Amino acid sequence: MDLIVFITSAALAYAIPIVYAGIGGQISLASGDLNIALEGEMLFGAFVAVAATYFLGSPWLGILCAVIVGAALGLLFGILIVSLKGNVFLVGITYNFLLAALTVLLLGMIFGVRGSFSSPDLIGIPKLPLGTFGDIPFLGSVLSSQTYVAWFLIPVVFLWSYVLRSTPLGLRIRALGDNQEAVRSAGLNVDRMRLGVQIVCGMLCGIAGAQLALGALTLFSAGMSAGRGFVALAIVILVGQRPWMLVLAAFAFGITDGIGIKLQQADVPAQFPQMLPYAVTLLALILVALRGHLRTTRRSR
Amino acid sequence: MTSAPNSTEICVELKGITKRFGAVVANEDVSLDVRSGEIHAIVGENGAGKSTLMSILHGMQLPDTGHILIDGKERIFHSARDAIALGIGMVHQHFMLAPSLTSAENIVLGYEPGTSLKSNTRDATALVRELFNRFDLQVPPDTPVRELAIGAQQRVEILKALHRGARILILDEPTAVLSPEEVETLFSRLRNLRSSGITIIFISHKLREVMALSDRVTVMRRGKTVETLTTSQTDQNQLADLMVGSSVSSDGKPRPVPASHVRESMLRLQSVQSPTRPGNSGLKDLDLDIRRGEIVGIAAIEGNGQSDLMEIAAGVASPSAGQVFFKGNDVTRLHVGQRRALGLAYVPEDRHRDAIALDSTAAETFLSTRRPKNWIDWFRPAMSAADKARIADLMQDFDVRPADPDVLCRSMSGGNQQKLVFARELADNADCILLGQPTRGIDIGASRALFERIWRSRDKGAGVLFLSADLDELFSVADRIVVMFDGRIVSELDPQSAVPRDASGFMTGAAHAVL
């Protein structure tokens, strides 16, 4: 039973930042400008959250700063692809490299350390007190170790799911990704909508980063996002515009990560478990591609 | 006959509109007045400036000079939204629909009930149903528009404009994509809309339709408005003369009788089948023989297998059963490139999807069907100066405007893109020519020129398969007409003795002939 508790905790720790970033990815996918810089934006959000929390002394201000900087990064991303008509993939690749390198540079300049920064003054995001619910066997210990940001994800997914499916805003975003001309001919401002989408995506990546650095752990280390942004991207491509499928898939990846950590403690070469989430991603992508291929060959005569 | 509009109040007035694109003058000193509650047709050849004028009226373009008056007040449109706010709605020739969204979602897009976060789009369905009843236009509200037939998609476009409060509805070449039955339905619906007080501006170059539908008609030629006439006081010949600026009537010369009567088979389809799909019957054991020196016309309503027939004949698709013979040889397994090498020419139905790449130049489009003949060709430059000169000549010859091999296809009008495709396909004197809806979106002059060439090719012994949604055109061009219904050939007609009306019964499956 300890094993299940361990794997579930590890899965949640792994999955929650992925879902936040993944919703950002879904918004960008629905709008037609899939943002592949989730990884970079999340990593930078983690850095900003740590730095701001350290200097301002409050994890809440840390999260706020991560969200504001995320919005700014999203706005810049939007300007690059919309106003300056940059290619969305090139800008995304540049963002990933640039932001990763920038965190290392700032880590040295601000904290004078290489690799990672941690301090007793660094306060993690508080955990939601559950009272008597925390006493539920197994589940209680998992749930009571979750932060406010982790719990906040539930209303966020509900809200996103509702906005996307049932509101005019969601309709416009979906129409934007489907046929920009249709949106333009409805007299809507396509450019402003695309900018807005990237800003929201950046904000969500900022929260993802804050949870990553101040949730289960309280530290920043270079490259700590460790491919989670890309896993989020892969999931978004797999599940499309279905928010709850995103949650499910992220949790499934989290479980493989948890199993991986356990295997690492057993007598398995460390590289194997580290490889697991990516191997699963690859496998899932191949399966989806095959299914799509079968469907198109059946359709074409 | 159409009834005269009950009002002479002018709701749209354009005065002295001029619009230039670089050196090209699209509209020059254009003036137009449209009365409330009338159906006002605007006719003109490709490139006469109809579409530019309408995009100015709909706020998509700003005129260089000139005035737009709506209900007597001068207005300046900075975007489509300004025009929409004044009740001007546009139904574009290429629909502006989001294909994976439902009809209801497309209709309310941008003008949803409620505010952006508070309302539920399910309210939209109710709202849209109310709209259906008010204007008697029906579409399934919860079906993604990509699954709808073209006619239904067009109704979604019209409903979209009406939902936005359009009092003045502009339809750009609305019949170009419709079957004859769908055209009839559209016309009766447009008349209904007129009775409910909607003013309709109808852009077309099909004079028969203009005569049947409109109250008044404005003729445009080379960017200028030539004349506005009351439809009941004019006829097709007068309009055709005004459109082209010389005495060429639309009916023109009679179809020349085939010169040769060689019965040798050119392209033969034997027991060809293709699968049934949603909205498409597929082919059910179809036999068709196109002989040397004849034009075989295909009459069918969209979705009855005629597109499969064209694609299988061309080698773009392979049949699920059956064989295709070209000049007596089995070519079932050969793809379109290999069949072209044997002397086949193919004008696909869907120009943008299958015939040209919008981002390539005219010359590249021209050479895209050429295949390397031997290994040396793979290492030669794809285009020589001689190629380019020849392409420029051919473009001139086929009246492609501009006749510049370096121009991007995207910047050409639809009619000129199509003429470029003709130039490519007809340049090499192919033995067998497959024409899928070749006159879609091109004007009378260009159609006439195409048919002259087709008749000449036929007289030299080519076999032609000609698919058209326009029955009048089929009957005036083809030597033999086969009617398809539900994936089978249900009738064969001789255009010398039969009339278009004879075909319609077979096309809907209402009549059955024993073959």
List keywords for this structure.
A: 301 residues, mainly alpha, ABC transporter involved in vitamin B12 uptake, BtuC, two-stranded antiparallel ribbon, B: 515 residues, alpha/beta, Rossmann fold, six-stranded mixed beta sheet, 17 helices, 24% strand, globular, disordered N terminus
TL;DR?
Helices cover about 75% and strands about 0% of the residues of chain A. Chain A is mainly α and about 300 residues long.
Q: Care to describe what's here?
A:
- The complex is a heterodimer of chains A (301) and B (515).
- Chain A has 301 residues and is mainly α.
- Chain A has a single domain (2-299), classed as ABC transporter involved in vitamin B12 uptake, BtuC.
- Chain A is built from twelve helices and two strands.
- Chain A has a two-stranded antiparallel sheet with strand order 1-2.
- The longest helix of chain A is centred in the N-terminal third of the chain and has 30 residues, at 2-31.
- Chain A starts with a helix and ends with a helix.
- In chain B, the strands form four sheets. In chain B, strands 6-7-8-3-9-10 form a six-stranded mixed beta sheet, sandwiched between helices.
- In chain B, α14 (414-426) runs parallel beside α15.
- The two termini of chain B are 38 Å apart.
